[in-house]
Amino acid sequence: MTLIRVDAVEDRPQLHGLGEAPGALLAEAVRGTRGPVVVMIHGYKFVPGHPVRCPHRHILGLEARRDCWKAVSWPRALGFAGASAEEGLGLAFGWHARGTLWEAWRRAEAAGVALAQVVEVLRAAAPERPVHVVAHSLGARVALVAMTRAAEGAFGRVLLLAGAEFAGAAEAALVAPGGRRAELVNVASRENLPFDLMLEALIAPARPGDVTLGRGLAPGPRRATLRLDDAGTLAALAGRGFRVAPPARRICHWSAYLRPGALDLYRALLRAPERVPLAALATASGRASGARAPLPSPAAAPS
Predict the structure, then answer these.
(1) Helix 101-125 vs helix 139-149: angle between axes, to the nearest 10 degrees?
(2) Which of 169, 102, 129, 116 is nearest to 34 (CA)?
(3) Cα 44 to Cα 98: distance, rounded to the nearest angstrom
(4) Cα 254 from chain centroid?
(5) CA distance 297 to 303
(6) Alpha-carbon span 46 to 41, nearest angstrom
């Protein structure tokens, strides 16, 4: 088994559809596989078990749905098709992300506590294998909360795609015990500008004056902001063999994983980190690692 589905029920993890604690199955699965351990976390508007918006029948499922243009299979794209134990272990992590933005924001924190428990089980069973993460939108908040709750050195590479969180939360997670060995890749683009502005307008950050991840991260170690709206960045990635398509829409919250070539890049970042070290990503972005950029006006957004 190379893909396990787990849901957060408030601040406790359960196996999807079974209502059972996942500890025993997770420990058995991680011992029985080789390769990377990758947690995949969805964002806003999904809820496990929902007849239409269940993430396990959408981006976290093994089969892409034909009735939704956004329903590309993350597990398959990242190499978890169930062909062999060499694929590693993929964890599809669901949580209740429907309701108002404020309700989902609060639930994301509880889901992060649940995810930290999952990571503790994985690390206890296979302490030599770091846990990598890819998270979209409010899933970034789930991941960052888990980093602040997990034990020393629990996390490896953490990819945040159009993350709906503040930069200060990412910086705090990197110095927390669970994040002290982590490498954080903040994937941003001006296509997500309206959503960044909405978050800044509606949610009060823990640190007054803080800005969204869409602006980038303050300079520091083990972090890089990868701006997929920048032509120079895309050219530099292409030079390393990663052809990510340029923006196709003026506004798109899902571009970070829907663009042709994007998931191929993330697969390499998680499965072969030596091929693209963090310093190379910082160089590709055309800025110093973590350099912060101002949010442009909507009129300047790419078409």
Answers:
(1) 50
(2) 129
(3) 6
(4) 12
(5) 13
(6) 11
What are the φ/ψ torsions at residue 73 (nearest 5 degrees)?
-80, 110
Q: Which amino acid is at 76?
A: R
pLDDT tens per residue, range 152-210: 989 999 999 999 999 999 999 999 999 999 999 999 999 999 999 999 999 999 888 89
- CA 282, CA 185: separation in Å to the nearest integer? 9
DSSP string, 66-110: TT-TT---HHHHTT-SSS-GGG-EEEEEE----S-HHHHHHHHHH
Q: Say whether 36 sits in a helix, a strand or coil.
A: coil
Residue 90, Cβ neighbours under 10 Å: how many? 28
Determine which helix (DSSP H) or strand (DSSP E) holds 15, and give its type and residue range. strand 12-15
Beta-strand relationship, 12-15 and 131-136 = unpaired
This model's pTM is above 0.70? yes
Residue type, position 251, single letter: I
Helical residues (DSSP H) of the chain, grouped into ranges: 23-31, 74-77, 101-125, 139-149, 167-175, 193-202, 231-239, 255-258, 262-271, 278-284
